[in-house]
Records
---
Amino acid sequence: MESNIPEIYGCYVFNDKIMRNKLPKDVYKALRKTIQNETHLQLDIANSVAVAMKEWAIENGATHYTHWFQPMTNVTAEKHDSFVCPTGDGQVIMDFSGKELVKGEPDASSFPSGGLRATFEARGYTAWDPTSPAFIKDKTLYIPTAFCSYSGEALDKKTPLLRSMETLNRAAVKLLHVLGNKDVKHISITIGAEQEYFLVDKDVYQNRKDLKYTGRTLFGAPAPKGQEMEDHYFGNLKPRIAAYMHDLDMELWKLGIPSKTKHNEAAPAQHELAPVFETANVAVDHNQLTMEIMKKLADKHNMVCLLHEKPFEGINGSGKHDNWSLTTDTGENLFDPGKTPAENTQFLVFLVAVIKAVDDYADLLRISVASAGNDHRLGGHEAPPAIVSIYLGDDLYRILRSIQKDREINQQDEVEMDIAKVLPHFLQDTTDRNRTSPFAFTGNKFEFRMLGSSASVADPNVYLNTAMAETLNQFRERLENVPEEEMETEIRKLIQETMANHRRVIFNGNGYTDEWVEEAAKRGLFNLVSTPDALEQFISEKNKKLLLEHKIFTEQELYSRYEIMLENYMKTINLEANTMIEMIQKDFLPAVVAYTKELAETASLKKSVVPDVTLVSEESLIKKLSEAQTNLYNGIEKLKADNLAAKQIANHLEAAKYYQSVVLKDMEDIRIFADEAEALMPEAKLPYPTYGELLFSI
Ligand code: ADP
Ligand code: MG
């Protein structure tokens, strides 16, 4: 079976081919229209689709269906209902109605709601997203849905994403019409989400409480070997990894997830998977599924897949590159520079729109990737800094600069020539990647590289889409009443002004240097180093205005998200602190004491045999370990007190800042003592496996 990939591909997806086969022609047509965002689905159509879906699902072994949704937790949620329906005579039929397809009513009270729950009923509802295909997994029919409170407030990641896609669609289409591109009826936002991950041996993992409880190691002296030899990136795949990756591809392909590229990443035990891009909401759903299947399959292969942003200190953490572009229903990629100057006008307008959008809402983009886990990565010289800037490459930058400087229209020809001269070269040069940039133009798309590996791809795209929609609307308002003969001139002025006002966000140099941090400060760019710093900006007037005006969030939804993110941050640090306290008190200190005792006994035994024996190593080790013991003991006492103090702070932003500046700092101090002591102890005496075992046992 495995040899015929085209046959296997999407075999568990209720895809277009199956729909066409299973549905009456008029029903199929109506559903297609809904999928293309053109019409609302009527109940009789939904009934007809439900019957076909159920038949197909049962044929493929399904007994249950579930409304699958994405609450504010980064993982998905599902509640399974069987198709079974008693007929009253001890028999059952397998039943599934249009109503059940379109709407579900799960209890919303146990999902993060950031206060919405208190004011609204606990009941929530899930609504079918017909633009993301249903699929079968584990004998259940999965229906992708949005998740709202009973009064309609979004409680999930999908709802704002769909709203942002729609606002950007409308804005882009209207502007394209003003620019003379009148055939376009719809634009799609395309996303390719490259996913990094670690694989560690399950038996080794089982003995690390920190990995089990928090997803990252809170201790661990560096292994003799790290990533300094640069021998892992693109290195050949070990058989166990290769077998895992093969199984993973097969599972993903069956679910219609276009997994394309796989390779070893920079750090030992680190890998990457890149899919072919898809429409934003489908790509987001597929990335959620990919993460889930990565974990499930790792377990089968006696490994554990770590999706935390920074599982190990001293080597690279994991991110997720969000490749983002816009495509028209006429098949045009709006970020494709094209070959002729006529096409360039449109390209350049959309390009400078991105520059303005990212500059105006750099803080929102930073917020969209903010989490306790990702804080360890950003600015750590392994991922972009916390400063949002755009990399355009020298050639493209030169084109925009030459337009900016050319304020006089009579020099237009020269500029056009300049564009013509530079463009072919530029096209060749797009492989030149500046990996240090958080937001890079890569030929015909942008690549946003700040996102953490465990996060949903939805968030950055919500803000990116909305900021872009706002900018395109502003451009359209400016251009829509310009007479045709003046349009070129006005567009040129628009590009010039946008460059003059927003050029500061463009940076083509090395983003990992301290010089850039200084330079960015001079330019007035945000450098929101930690999650609490970033979240403070979330509810600024500027950001509120954007998100409310574009109806991405109601004010209540906005504040609920702010609350959820703060709570999530605090809970994460608190959990890490508790785990550290437990590991030091219950495991590490007893191990240090036991080994010190052994050394002391050895020393006194030696002395009883050879009274003038030298005991330099015992004495020195005992001294160092005793010091470490004292420091660890004191450190833990301080951590306990500070962790408790953090809980007493009523204001959540203040509390989050306290966790960040005090509790996290305590943990860093403790780690230094523990790792120093670990290095002095024999492997057999350690209560948990070393970095060496974790990183090199596969
Ligand atoms: P890398 O960044 O690893 O060098 P590429 O830039 O070739 O690799 O591709 C990375 C990702 O970009 C892939 O997931 C690919 O599908 C995606 N991608 C390519 N074109 C587009 C596009 N037009 N819109 C969104 N994503 C795209
Ligand atoms: Mg990439």
---
Amino acid sequence: MNDLDAGQSGGAAAAGVIYLVATPLGNLEDITLRALRILGEVSLVACEDTRRTGRLLKHFQISKPLVSCHDHNEARRATELAERAAAGESIALVSDAGTPLIADPGFRVVRAAIERGVRVVPVPGPSAAVAALSVSGLPSHDFAFKGFLPSKSAKRRAAIRSLERSDSSTVFYEAPHRILAAVADTRELLGDSRRIAIARELTKLHEEVLRGPVASVLEALSARPSQKGEFVLVIGPADDRAASGSRSTTAAPPAAPAA
Ligand code: SAM
């Protein structure tokens, strides 16, 4: 047994525990061995979309009762799940992709569990924010994660303007139909030379990272007929002393097939 097997990290899924299980962003090879074990051992899996998680579990030959827990029913489900765990069930909470609670449901469940003295255990794995930051080429020792940029222009612009003097990198999620507007706002509000990175379709077939001064990234994006896929926008600090050159680069696609 190694260090990782000691304490709550090892052994069979414990009774009366809620596990927060990260799942792949796209490439199914990113599921962890521990996630598979826990998903196979719990008595119930709570998920955003039962069909989607059902497909994931089926792929790994896991058969479990599923219950939905999404933005529209989480308040009610939180109490129910926490009480079931308090009564001795072991429950896994997953989201559609990545780490639960990170711009995804689950916070209320965790709160309700903690209030009832239920143990909450992380089963870490992929998250688009961390994956994007890691390949962004922007300073990563100090960063802020701000979830989704506001969908309305005025609020989005205010969020971007607030980074005028930012001394760390900032990570946002953004929808494909707004990414161009978000990058255009970044250029207008923070200046042509502000360094950014856009990570698209991470771990999937069309994975790509655009990096460089916002003016050149905007030019590259604007040249496309449409913006497709899932995007993370990373805006570098106002004063990026580590930066050199101004080339926009594209990452090679991953070797493994996307799910
Ligand atoms: N909980 C998830 C996580 O840990 O990354 C994020 C869920 S949030 C509802 C979904 C957003 O994450 C997408 O709109 C996109 O901005 C980002 N995202 C998810 N998967 C991605 C991927 N494969 N590549 C790039 N961005 C992704």
